[in-house]
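Subject: sequence -> structure tokens, single chain

Hey, anyone have a minute? Need the predicted structure for the following. Not urgent.
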Amino acid sequence: MGLFGALASLLAACDDGTKITRVDRRGGFVRSWLVFAAEGGLPVEMHGRPFPGVTDQEVAARLRFPPGTLRGFRFRAMAPGETAPRRLVLVFNRTDAPNAVRDCARLGPVPTAEPSEVGFTAQATFCTESHMMATGFLEARKTRADDPEAFTLALQRLFREMTGVNMH
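Reply:
Had a minute. Here:
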């Protein structure tokens, strides 16, 4: 096995099945937006579930920004359709095409598939009222329900891509 074969094997062994796509960020989305929005905890409007049996509150408790970005930042679950001027819309295992603009404006549930014990998808969108500020799509095909830390790390990677590197 040559150098390229060894490198390919090493990369395959490190592949955690996580892929981030469809990242978009509007010019008005900066760190101060998050700080202002998060007083009392940033509201999270959730649709679907990443895994069977988890509650919105359990998901919100596992959400974190990457280390060194926003210390002490909290998320809090809210019901779909509940209004909050600034919020994170989080759609797990959606069955329709990802559309962040529509997710911010939506007034009802997003169609989602039944969750499984292994793997999930997530469309995350930071919204100001009905306007999309930042969004990204995550496929975490190997993340398991019995590994909550892997779930947290996958979402941290998505948030890092969505918010940009310079969030200090």
